UniProtKB/TrEMBL annotation:
Membrane topology: Multi-pass membrane protein
InterPro entries named in the record: AAA+_ATPase (IPR003593), ABC_carbohydrate_import_ATPase (IPR050107), ABC_transp_permease (IPR001851), ABC_transporter-like_ATP-bd (IPR003439), P-loop_NTPase (IPR027417)
GO MF: ATP binding; ATP hydrolysis activity; transmembrane transporter activity
PROSITE patterns in UniProt: ABC_TRANSPORTER_2
Domain ABC transporter residue range list: 15-242, 254-493
Protein name, per record: Ribose transport system ATP-binding protein
Record carries keyword DNA-binding: no
GO (cellular component) term, any one: plasma membrane
């Protein structure tokens, strides 16, 4: 076993938390906690799930504001610590659930985390430093859980912080990755970095840490040098009692046990020709380096991914597809993505898979539901203020207990668990292991994927080792030891890798994209593929219309279409800004109409230029005020984007009708002519909107504003942890949309030439359509302004083409509806496919 790097303590702690307390409703998360972290030392922070470790580190990084207490950084008290302030003072954290932005690429995630956007840094070297075999152009949503953790570690290490906080950093990592991490931790300590290391694995504490502080129920229960404590003493400090054994007793050998689960020749994405058997009472483990097909096989065994061959038999009956889904309970490795439903309570999360058995005459028996959930969760010692508490208020380990409670309540015929104790404390692990053994004893096969060989040794009766998607070894009975499992994993991987013509691990295992992914594959997963498709459709459709009517490309028609397009394009670009954040603005159409109505009172023939300029100023102020109001309602008044912008939609339209109940106030011909000036057949305004779209696109990819915009849409929680000013970004997005609408209103004013309160409303739906056609996600984080511009072009092209094809106006709406459906279907399918692969 390695020993920690020799401590290089300073005379002054680099981080000190004094008397910190924090309460959430009835739950006292922290109570008068003191923590002193010195430079050049690894300080382990231990405790059961829900003990307050993550809350304490939230205080240390500015994510959580304490009720009482003092924070001292490098000897200086900090009044209010925010993530931004913490980052500038040299505090970095690797979160248990990575603070990554799924809709951005690996490179963009690194730039979002590094000072100055990573300008001048070799991003490839940043990844290589921690052994991260990732492609910089891979979208993070396509990465595996382990790869996301490695990226999170790379971001933190690259900052070379004064304080490095590691929250369960090794939970999803393989052995080699853990070794790389520990090497980086030791190097950081040698540079004088203070490291706070949160873990549930005492062996890691023994290997890497100098001192340890233990929390229990939000209070410090002990602090000592690691070398002065035995493992038993640490355990007693953590759980407050003696733990005689982590693992329950295994069943003894018996030749009479029947085969309950039989898998023969099962093949699918990432694995091939896998055979596996489980006898009554057995727990079967799947071992192997992360990404070698174990997780993919487990999903297929639960009917969650398709298979290309082989059979699965339960109790002698063959099952496949949906019949497997109905008979299995699957506990995923990624709790946040697949395990919990964040908007539901603890009770609802636990009971959702067993509602049918809890229902009487089609209605759920609430009393019985609470009773069975309470009983089952009690077996796992679930820590929650109430079963009605939100699931996201629980610690990661307690969330895992809820996932297992749901699995057990569903009364499965096959229990499948991928990394069942990831992020779970020692005491809870023992409870989970005991329940798994009890389930197996009842004749329900239990199959477990784990990267912890010690866990497989203590829990499993049989272990199947996989490499490159194939079974390379099977260990049973006394053969199931940590040494034998590790030897089989390493030996099998080495033999496969050295075989001539062997398929690469990534290819065989169906792992997420990594270094070496092709440019074409990146492009297809990127934000510009929809724009390319749109461009092809525009050209093809234009060629078809021209073949039917040669006047389609007449100079007058081109100029007219581009003038009409420019107004829609400006408003659509504004809509894209808001949608990029995950919001939506239904009020842009009526806002454009109101601005034209305002202009109709001032921008008239024979009016002085000063009055015209004043009118433009008033229009701009009204637009900005509208955007500020929308953003304020959404971010500070608790309105949803739809509710806020719909409210403003009604108000703006009402004001327009009050000002102009009927059409009136003719717009100055001179002003209209100036706004519609052309260069040849191309209006200058259209050239302007193209330049604006290109400028916005460059800003989206290259500036802090653009990264913030995509970050809050991709993951608001992660963006906040990365010190992005989330509220300000949202509000400014609505203001930006309103300013773009002001530009569009100027062109709309020139087109209709009169104050008409009804002319703007159609732009709301059209602008949303253009953004969706351009490939943007209505969930936020993805899209491009170039795609939005092309989406607007296609919409206007279709509206114009119906005239040249002698079609009625009805077809304009039909075509728009079809386009929306096609765009939504393609996007939804593409994104769900990427999620499945990831």
């Amino acid at each position: 076993m390695s020993t920690p790097t020799t401590a290089r303590t300073g005379t002054r702690p680099v981080l000190e938390l004094r008397g910190v307390s924090k309460r959430y409703g009835a739950v006292q998360a922290l109570s008068d906690v003191h923590l002193r972290v010195e430079p050049g030392r690894v300080h382990a922070l231990l405790g059961e799930n829900g003990a307050g470790k993550s809350t304490l580190m939230g205080v240390a990084t500015g994510v959580t504001r304490p009720d009482t207490g003092e924070i001292v950084v490098q000897g200086e008290p900090v009044g209010t610590l925010t993530p931004d302030v913490a980052s500038r003072r040299g505090i970095a954290i690797v979160h248990q659930h990575p603070a990554v932005l799924p809709d951005l690429t690996v490179a963009e995630n690194l730039r979002a985390a590094l000072p100055g956007g990573g300008r001048g840094r070799d991003l490839r070297a940043v990844l290589d430093r921690v052994g991260a075999d990732l492609d910089l152009q891979d979208r993070v949503d396509d990465l595996s859980v382990a790869q996301k953790h490695v990226l999170e570690i790379a971001k933190a290490i690259a900052l070379e912080p004064a304080v490095l906080i590691l929250d369960e950093p090794t939970a999803p990592l393989g052995g080699d990755q853990v070794d790389d991490l520990f090497a980086q931790v030791r190097a950081a300590v040698d540079r004088g970095t203070a490291v706070v290391y949160i873990t549930h694995r005492l062996a890691e504490v023994r290997e890497i840490a100098h001192e340890v502080t233990v929390l229990r129920d939000g209070k410090v229960t002990g602090h000592a040098q690691v070398e002065d404590l035995t493992d038993e003493q640490m355990l007693r400090m953590i759980i407050g009692r003696e733990l005689t054994s982590t693992f329950p007793d295994k069943l003894g050998p018996s030749a009479e046990r029947s085969v309950v689960l039989s898998v023969e020749g099962l093949s699918g994405n990432g694995f091939r020709d896998v055979a596996l058997r489980a006898h009554r009472g057995e727990i079967v483990g799947l071992a192997g380096i992360v990404g070698n097909g174990q997780s993919e096989f487990l999903r297929a065994l639960g009917g969650l991914s398709p298979v290309t061959g082989g059979t699965v038999q339960l109790d002698g009956t063959a099952h496949h597809g949906r019949s497997l889904v109905a008979r299995t309970a699957y506990m995923p490795a990624d709790r946040h993505r697949e395990g919990v439903m964040p908007n539901l309570s603890v009770r609802e999360n636990a009971a959702v898979a067993s509602l049918r058995s809890l229902a009487r005459h089609g209605f759920v028996d609430g009393r019985r539901e609470r009773q069975v959930v309470g009983t089952e969760s009690g077996k796992l010692a679930l820590k929650t203020a109430s079963l009605e508490s939100g699931i996201m208020s629980l610690s990661g380990g307690n969330q895992q207990k809820v996932v297992m409670t749901r699995a057990l309540l569903s009364k499965p015929r096959l229990l499948l668990s991928d990394e069942p104790t990831q992020g779970v404390d020692v005491g809870a692990r023992s409870e989970i292991y005991t329940l798994m053994r009890a389930v197996a004893a009842e004749g329900v096969p239990v199959v477990v994927v784990s990267s912890d060989a010690k866990e497989l040794e203590g829990l499993c009766d049989r272990v199947v080792v996989m490499s490159r998607g194939h079974v390379v070894a099977e260990l049973t009975g006394a053969q199931v030891t940590e040494e034998a499992i590790t030897g089989a994993v390493v030996g099998a991987d080495h033999r496969t890798a050295s075989t001539a013509g062997a398929t690469s691990a990534r290819s065989a295992a169906g792992a997420a994209p990594g270094r070496g992914s092709g440019r074409w594959a990146h492009f297809l997963r990127g934000d510009y593929a929809p724009a390319l498709i749109l461009a092809a459709v525009i050209v093809g459709f234009g060629a078809y219309v021209y073949s039917q009517n040669s006047r389609y490309l007449a100079t007058f028609n081109i100029s007219s279409v581009l003038i009409l397009l420019t107004a829609l394009a400006f408003i659509s670009l504004g809509q894209a800004i808001v949608i990029m954040t995950g919001g939506i603005d239904l009020s842009l159409g009526p806002l454009a109409g109101l601005l034209v109505v305002i202009a109709s009172f001032f921008v008239n023939d024979n009016r002085p230029y000063a009055v015209v300029y004043l009118a433009f100023g008033i229009m701009l102020v009204v637009a900005i005020a509208s955007g500020l109001l929308n953003g304020t309602l959404v971010r500070y008044a608790g309105f949803t984007p739809v509710a806020a912008s719909l409210t403003l939609y009604i108000a703006l339209q009402g004001v327009s009708l009050l000002l102009r109940p009927f059409q009136g106030g003719f717009i100055s011909v001179a002003v209209s002519d100036a706004l519609t000036t052309t260069v040849g057949p191309v209006p200058v305004a259209f050239l302007a909107v193209v330049l604006v779209a290109v400028g916005l696109e460059v800003a989206l990819r290259r500036t802090a504003w653009g990264r913030s915009l995509r970050a809050v849409g991709s993951s608001e929680e992660s963006a906040r942890r990365l010190a992005v000013k989330v509220n300000r970004t949202h509000v400014l997005a609505y203001v930006g949309a309103a300013v773009m609408t002001f530009c569009g209103a100027l062109l709309l004013m020139a087109q209709i030439g009169v104050g008409d309160p009804t002319q703007g409303v159609t732009y709301t739906l059209s602008s949303i359509t253009a953004v969706v056609l351009g490939g943007a996600s209505l969930l936020g984080g993805r899209g491009s302004f170039i795609g939005t511009l092309l989406g607007a072009v296609l919409i206007q092209q279709i509206l114009n083409a119906t005239t040249f094809l002698n079609l009625t106006q009805t077809y304009q709406y039909v075509f728009q509806g079809v386009l929306i459906l096609i765009a939504a279907a393609i996007y939804t399918r593409a994104r769900s496919t990427r999620r499945t692969v990831a």
